[in-house]
Amino acid sequence: MTDRTQPEALDLADWLEAVGGGPSAKRCAALLREQHARIADLEAQLEAIGAGGVSGPLMGRPQVGRPVE
Asked: Rounded CA gap, 34 and 41, in Å?
């Protein structure tokens, strides 16, 4: 998990469970937690490959001799 976590999303899930809104609120809380975990996993993958910005050469090679429009 990165340091860009979203604790407010987990706080919302806690609140949904605490208010006792029935099965639909519990399901929403569970889905929110699943999405939060998935986003954190994807952020970690992006960080691992260095996709936080351009720090090296861009992919591909420029076309030599083609005019830029």
From this structure: 11
Return the axis-axis angle of helices 7-18 and 23-48, rounded to nearest 10°: 170
CB count within 10 Å of CB 54 equals: 8
| pTM of structure | 0.59
With residues binned 3-state (H G I as helix, E B as strand, rest as coil), the percentages for the chain, rounded to 5, are 55, 0, 45
**Residue-wise pLDDT tens digits, 5-56:** 568 889 999 998 898 878 888 899 999 999 999 999 998 888 888 766 655 5
Nearest to 9 by CA among 29, 38, 24, 27: 29
Give the span between the Cα atoms of 6 and 3, in whole angstroms.
9
